[in-house]
Amino acid sequence: MLFLSTCASVYQEVLSLDVKKRCGEILFENPDQNVKCVCMLDVRLRGQTGVPAERRGSYPFIDFRLLNNTTHSGEIGTKKKVKRLLSFQRYFHASRLLRGIIPQAPLHLLDEDYLGQARHMLSKVGMWDFDIFLFDRLTNGNSLVTLLCHLFNTHGLIHHFKLDMVTLHRFLVMVQEDYHSQNPYHNAVHAADVTQAMHCYLKEPKLASFLTPLDIMLGLLAAAAHDVDHPGVNQPFLIKTNHHLANLYQNMSVLENHHWRSTIGMLRESRLLAHLPKEMTQDIEQQLGSLILATDINRQNEFLTRLKAHLHNKDLRLEEVHDRHFMLQIALKCADICNPCRIWEMSKQWSERVCEEFYRQGDLEQKFELEISPLCNQQKDSIPSIQIGFMTYIVEPLFREWAHFTGHSALSESMLSHLAHNKAQWKSLLPKQHRTSGDGSPDHKGPGTEDEEQTVTEGDAP
Predict the structure, then answer these.
(1) Is the Cβ–Cβ distance between 389 and 451 less than 8 Å?
(2) Which of 33, 185, 219, 313 has CB 3.0 to 4.6 Å from 357, enough for a Cys bridge?
(3) Phi-psi category of 46—alpha, beta or left, where left has phi over 0 and alpha has psi -120 to 50?
(4) pTM (predicted TM-score)
(5) What gap in Å lies between CA 388 and CA 208, rounded to an integer?
(6) What are the beta bridge partners of residue 164?
């Protein structure tokens, strides 16, 4: 009780600060001050010009009754029905808060012992062996909020952009809560992991000296929100089930467009950047979109080809905004698929999680008599074979070029070393008849073939 009352008094003190003091002139002295109790009621989006924004929560969990009805009719139903399905989850959440019912989400409170351990971990947030799973447990499931508050503070972004600390926290809570915790892979812990990796990449000497505060804020925000409101199924699934988002975005970067527009909606709803000039906020929205859209795995060859050309021609000019933005896109793409470059214990966990999400999609497709998507058949697609194909055709080519860009920095060499080790580990776990031949390519048709390269790029990255 004493700890709870102390937290309440600290929070009341923060709220009592005038706006000027809360907008960057007071810096957190301790990382544990990033963990505050913020009660948030749902508010409606304010109309603004510029990038169209999607309403928060516009992508609920897949409604399987609707799916079951539409697989035969081929229609998604009337707009009125769709609107009712999409709005119910948000309405139900808001109405529970208004009636005083405590939400099921964990409170943003930490036991003192756990808080000390989380603070100790934050002091090493720039280390590549940072254990995001442990950090999430220590922060009571609030790793994304706690990490972002800390990074915004350490990078001086709160002071530079005169951000209101309570508003920043409210926005980050919005982002974290709009990730689906029941997704094995595409959840807030994945977002926190990508954000921590992005922080490491922003510190690379070849890049860091050219970055502006705006570049850093864009990189961290894009990393945190790049998969927000992910449904746990991939784009081909949405297309073949005639999902309204697939129609809205004409089957092009469907999920990435939704992540971007949802992020813009939360930025506007929270009014985090409302004090900045209109032209600046519109530019931030557009650049966030460009970064998040770059994570579409179907555009992998496009970005890799451009990066190779720049490095071959030695024509990257990081003093120029355009080239810096391109390298931020590459950094975010690397952060998004860096799991195979982590230490084996963490890399293995992520691999198992993403494959579990794939298999769940395959089970749904089988249940509703749909064609099972590539990599989603648990009976045919083993975790080792999926991971070896992913590493060979997606991860290795990108990280070799990233190492080239960084001048083979200590971090990039460490990542490549982990990648080689992890690939060898997965090969050792392959069934004997599927082990690789002497030239390093699998003996069986599947991951490791040209078909696998196309298969991996058609869905979500493992």
Answers:
(1) no
(2) 185
(3) beta
(4) 0.79
(5) 32
(6) 23
